[in-house]
Amino acid sequence: MARCQSPHPEFANYTAATGFNCDGTDQCWVDEVGNFGTEAEPECFCVFHAPAERDPFDRDDWPMARRPALQAQRLLAYLEQWQARVTHGEERLAFVLPELKCGAVDFRRTVFPGPMVLSGAHFSGSCNLRSAVFHGDVKLSWTTFHKDADFHSARLQGAALFLQAEFKGVAGFDSAHFDGVADFALCRFHREADFESADFAGDADFEGAQFMGRVGFGTARFAALAAFEAAEFAANADFRGTRFGRDASFHGVRFGGNACFRT
Ligand SMILES: [Zn+2]
Questions:
Q1: What global pTM score does this model have?
Q2: Based on the domain organization, do 67 and 175 belong to the same domain?
Q3: For 110-140, how does the pLDDT look when each residue is reduced to its tens digit (9 = 90+)?
Q4: CA of 1 to the centre of ligand 1 (A)
Q5: Which of 18, 103, 172, 209 shows a CA-CA span of 20 to 30 A to 24?
């Protein structure tokens, strides 16, 4: 059966035993594909890794205009298969689909039962993850959220890796709970970034992050390290009532607007 040709080292990092549908190669596991080449020299890609400029999916069943919606629909279907296979108490299968492109998703209150590797993803639509629960590590490093990303009241029980992610819409992490490490180093927040009442139980790294819009950390709690070295706050930054349990580093930070640290 033809398989998507898109390669990524993360596919190889997860063997058949630990990655949903992974087989130890660095090739994407999705076998619902379109042929972007010729019959003699096929170039097969799944809907998540299909080149944007060409479209064999532009058929009655997968029309081009519906590609983002189709991506979201297929992602939901694969996640449901994965959720059904992951049983609590056993070794948890990771869901590995790096560099996927996807339209708007609505995963509010969804429970993701194992680790997720979605590094380098592009979400062209809004992402609703309000009150979602992530049991394992979540890798969303180098991901671009082209619209709003809403993690309001989400619970991230493993490491939350957003290294160098780009938030082009509003980033909503208010009342989110980070039980493990939260890595937002070098992230770019183009609009508001809302971390009001967020709870960071592990180390929180915002080193070199760029906040272009208003940012709120009011009444957030940092139980461990809070690293903001060389971060840039272009607009107002609200740290009113923020609780720092251990060291908080603001070395080399640039504030372009008002910064309020009143308790
Ligand atoms: Zn693929």
A1: 0.94
A2: no
A3: 999 999 999 999 999 999 999 999 999 999 9
A4: 14
A5: 103
